[in-house]
């Protein structure tokens, strides 16, 4: 609703002073004991519900937020959760699922529809936890996901054998550690955006993923953009945004 | 065409041995005196014609490639061109245009249609050259572009006054140097992908754009992915890919 | 007292040779068994009593220093204390308080007056431990503190809803990890000094707070200065210095 | 004016719909041909007029902005100006002054009052250009400045001989390159905030000021906060904010 | 000759005291006016004649050394030479050749035999100067070189079209800037050693070749080792060593 | 077999459509439950069987892959294995050997022939684990290895006493941490390729091996190429490639 | 003995062939089971006995080397030893002493004379472990050591009160973490060499001592040279070398 | 003179109030127009006259300081001078000498005695400018200097042929760029302190000397301390301090 509309309706007494004031001074979030401000307008604003970055949260805070979001939305999704955090809520909210590989904790509505398609590729098997975070994030947000794992450039025929599937996706997520060359090769082979996720897989001069990040940022291929090291969630999120654009009702050009 | 089709048609003598062999051994590029291999299949493969990264090219090579691409496509587009390079070709190919701000050199077909919409935002005026590279790249590839410049976070009301325009875009390109905080703020305000472009604008600990790159990679906001420092071209390219997904014929979900 | 006064009074026999000599050769600190030199003149010189940086101190040294400072001042304040260190002194000095969140250990005089006002803001909930170190440090030194937590730039309306409170403060402490953009946004919205505290919250390319530090140092906004990563104590200290300047008896201009 | 007041006055027809709408949708800046948005509300909001960061501005833009700000405020101040930029405006606006040392260009009102006091100290003579940027910035904003140059720690008696003057200041700006140790020593000797400015003076492992920046950020002394390398302007700005707090009408505590 | 042999022959008066002493105290280099020590035994010891790293040499020294090596060996080879240095010697030694692309200056014996085969590959055309330094170095040392330029991973079909030629080489030199992914892809496709040469081609976060270096060092493929950024000479040298091993008279196993 | 041959034979009905199609679409790897793609054509393509990088593999995956490779090849080799991983397979496959020093786990065929010779040198005793990984890798691949440990440059006579042995090798692996100077000294003393392996041995500014890596990359000596920090496996692999070239049937030149 | 003398005496049969050969081929070290080469000529060559860097040594190797050096020299000295290593030898060699603070393990001859004087200064109490390593190393090598701890620049009067003692030393060791400014201040106050030891004490941007190292390397004061982070042993060693030069029999000039 | 003596003599009227006050408040430096404070007590305090770091000084300041120091001391010494600066003073002070290699400008007293001995070694010829700065600095301060150039580790026999000369020195200055391994090798061969000077000679990953600095700081050899990159002056200074200790009248032990 536009400011002008609010003002006009207020003048006409269709809304009260309090309602009009609220519009301009509103606090679209819920305070939780001072330590957090849940963003309850987020789904309206961005099309995505708020999720929980579980790592580092105090036990009490985690449980409180997890329950509150579940109550509000009928489902809830947390990343980087520990098994300990799972133990905290599994008896309170029986439908909680925890995945040891991706460290995702969630209660998800049944029979969720998944639309469009993205491809999530990894260079090696050690990159799979990050790839699963990306894939499950995208799925939670309603995206259909194709997983193509262990197709790194040191044996490039493995990638070519799956190329057709990859080329059908609206967005490709390229997850790779060590030297991270997978993103460049993919960028040259598809005509859709590639979201590159460097991982901390590697040793020595990989510097916990910084080398892979630099590789991806400097890619000679086009159509590549990069998210933070190990940030599967961020990749799944932006891939979902792109996928939604591709499948929504056609815009006028 | 699929391998099976080729083989079948070859068996039926619909195509010759040479044609079949060519399919499997084809070199979809043109060699130019050994120094370059123009990617003549690129437009088919990726939907984008080949462009020229002019910086560092020898004069002779630059002129040769520029002419060749113009002959093939009826238009040609080069980034990071110097005025000297413009002098080299302006008499050979009279329609050449050169832009001192963005360092783009091009001959562009008339009456090109621009579809969809992306927004290109800058934090300051010094970021405009990179933003123009992004905007003009996207326009060359057929994208409608909205420019919103000088809306950095140090005077955040300037950004809010243009927010509606930004929110209508299919993709937002956020161009910022110094501390690069613009991308995070935009990420929290729009529901479309934000492509962040760090620039080398700044001094001291900005380290020629590395600080802005780190800011953007570490963003606490969602829906942000990052390209290389000053890489306006890369941002315009991926924004065009995203915009095309949004305006193409609706997929089945 | 000036050197000339000392000399004059010494000449007049108002002070003895020993007293005069003491003035010029004084050791304004107390040696503690060779391993430390407590700065007993500090409060006179700087207006702040000596505090203890507890981390890494040997048990015996910690207990000894903690007791000595309590005896001298009737109160004592330590940062980065472990629960183990609390156990060491809690029975010796019954009034000891320990805060698990900020890792502050202290015995504080009752009914301390708090003057002026500073605002301590955080981007997220994970930044609260550092913010509490800043806030409690400032309070121990007699400053009134307003806490505004979880107002990071990814949901910037949360910040705007508290802006008036922030703008009333004499100094704003901005505590943020990840990309640390909060400081820049605050710098553009208030007319008082902003002390920026990068935190080690984040992962991947946040490099344990170095990215946030670089963001803050490169801020495009004015009126921002930065302290070390996670250095809540340092921020609380300098904010107190600024607050004291604002509330002291008015200087002649 | 508060939102509630606006709404009430609008309801009473004391202000028109357009005026009320304007309040909520106002653009408190002037657009200059699309390339810049001068922040005409800045002085009201922050107490400081807008200044020009001249480096990198196109000639036409520089001249335009310089003139516009002069017309609006009757004075104008630019940092990091080149002699070339001075040549551009010196005939248009005859009162323009340019300082080769600090690279400041300005037209300043006569008989400006300077209040309070800050001290600007340098470690060596090579740090003076940055120190002058800080000092002249503060003076332009109405601060009285004491300059204490060439008092670095390698001959520490030079610092002690000026200590009383430094201790009288409301804020100390410590400008140092190479290893930057001056800030730590000053922090231990004064009871007012020290704003540390690392400079790019040095060679080899000084890494263009990064080493001095790290020294200052890690200082073992209290009451120190740091701005960007060579950012004299930023130091002069925040020192002025602190000085103003010290000399304004006394707050109630 | 072994120490024992020398001693025995000396005892038998087959060699003189001076000869024996010379053996143990020999200075297998020629002093040139104190500023350099030409390694005249180098060819015996390593199988490679001494070459000149021309960059940074004083004019007088460069001319002197160039002439001396030519006199001793009948040919001479210098890397990173400037056109100015070429001017200095072209009239003194008429057979001198200078290559503007690779910055190599040389007088080379006619009809030199080239044995075995190495492949020198580049990702882009901008990498060719470094590749030529590698290729011409190897050729000077008697290696047959196959050049395969502009086969970077962003259009990987260009590489596959030349793969058979590459696979026949005894050693592959992979020259690439930007993200440097070519080395990894080659490592997965050939069964011979790959010597990777990062180049300073790129911009932004390429950090003058450091990113490409990190990519190559962290390669997930086997059989790759890396030399310094832009070190074509070093790659040509070690590739020659490997090629010589492959073509020399067969060892007993 | 060449594409032309396949096509000709297919036309002549010597091979079926499926066989021909398979040639062009083949997947030369075995999928293992989606999480890995074993490269079963690797030995044919590269002359080396696939080995296991054990670190970070899930227990179930590790056991599965270890067994599969053993079944296929009659032997199996894993690097960076933990004692825990050894416990997992030692009862399943009784011939498994585990080496606590090099962290290698393997089942190796008896009476393997070792050909040629490489030398593996270390600077100190703390570098031995990495050196053993290199040596045992090379031995597994059929290379004869000479170990020369603890010959670092701080007592350079130790190196000279073993120089003749080193000079007889076809390739020298130089393993060193701290400042990594061993590689440079070796490079000047032998006429064969030196593969330098920086190790993470050291403290302080060694930065976990980065300093040694930089030393080796910048070596002033010729004939040196570098692998990743602690990458003994990579060094043993490429040294084996070089050694094989030296001992194979003599090529025509 | 000179080579010429050896040869002459050998010719005269004053020494045998074996003795002469031994001179030229000698191995001045003892091999210990292949894993180490104890440098038994070290004391003759350098004036210092070999010491043990205990960290990372296998138990068996540590015990073996510790015993061997004790047997050879009647005393033995190890740095960076763990309490576990002390347990290993304390019953075998009853005179062993272990210091938890400096992590030094040793058996030292009684009544060792200490000559000359060096001063070992620390900035804080947390730097004492490194300072003790320096001091005890120097004492083991026969140097008289003055300890001056906790005299950092944040309370510089503590340093001045001990300045006379420091100025009497032949060499000053300056041990400091955090910003490491102590070295610069000392360098300006004494006329003897200052050996600066950065420590890993600090947090945040101290980067485990790298910041302090950079501060010390960039010092604006003269007469300062730097050793590795936490390298107390190295500082004690070179300080002893300098002290010995100062107290030895006077050279002719 | 001690404080007590001053006070006693003052009481006895042997010195006036002004004299006594002067003692405690003295300014042992001369102010030069506010921009510099020449340290006229330096020679007394440190045994070294003040020298000029010419780089970056304004012309007027340079000339003024150069003349003032010449007048005070009868000689003057400046480092990092440009030929332009030489032009400025060569006519004013006819005895001025300028050395294009070391960039030293000086007027030196005739027949200066040089005592003791230091050795200045370089790895290559490109390191000579830094080595000459070290050597000429030491000579200006009265040290006898032996130059041993171009003895880098890639041809280590060159070093061994000069070893005896090096071993006779009281202090060895090791000047090396690229990988900087010379310092480690020298540290293992001499029993005197080695002052290591990394140089910016190199390219690629040498990072302007940072790699050589890291090599030297991490040296596995003992008796090495490091100064800043290209800091020949600093090395010559501390080497002179050490040499003076070695040749002065013998201390009592």
From TrEMBL, chains A, B, C, D, E, F, G, H:
Q: Which SMART domains is this protein grouped with?
A: AIRC
Which Gene3D superfamilies does the annotation name? 3.40.50.1970
Q: List each copy of the PurE domain by range.
A: 116-248
Q: What is this protein called?
A: Nickel pincer cofactor biosynthesis protein LarB
Say which species the protein is native to.
Answer: Blautia intestinihominis
């Amino acid at each position: 609703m536009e400011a002008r509309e609010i003002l006009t309706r207020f003048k006409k007494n269709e809304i009260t002073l309090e309602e009009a004031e609220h519009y301009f001074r509103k606090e679209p979030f819920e305070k939780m004991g001072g330590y957090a401000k849940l963003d309850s307008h987020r789904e309206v604003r961005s099309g995505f519900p708020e999720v929980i970055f579980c790592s580092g949260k105090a036990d009490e805070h985690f449980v409180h937020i997890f329950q509150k979001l579940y109550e509000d939305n009928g489902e809830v999704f947390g990343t980087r959760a520990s098994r300990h955090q799972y133990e905290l809520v599994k008896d309170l909210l029986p439908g909680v699922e925890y995945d040891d590989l991706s460290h995702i904790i969630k209660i998800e509505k049944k029979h969720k529809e998944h639309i469009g398609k993205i491809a999530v590729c990894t260079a090696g098997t050690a990159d799979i936890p990050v790839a699963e975070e990306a894939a499950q994030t995208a799925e939670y947000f309603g995206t259909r996901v194709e997983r193509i794992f262990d197709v790194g450039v040191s044996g490039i025929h493995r990638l070519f054998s799956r190329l057709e599937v990859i080329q059908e996706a609206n967005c490709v997520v390229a997850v790779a550690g060590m030297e991270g060359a997978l993103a460049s090769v993919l960028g040259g082979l598809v005509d859709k955006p590639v979201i590159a996720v460097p991982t901390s897989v590697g040793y020595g001069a990989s510097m916990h993923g910084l080398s892979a990040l630099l590789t991806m940022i400097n890619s000679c291929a086009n159509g590549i953009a990069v998210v933070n090291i190990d940030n599967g969630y961020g990749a799944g999120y932006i891939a979902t945004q792109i996928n939604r654009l591709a499948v929504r009702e056609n815009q006028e050009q």
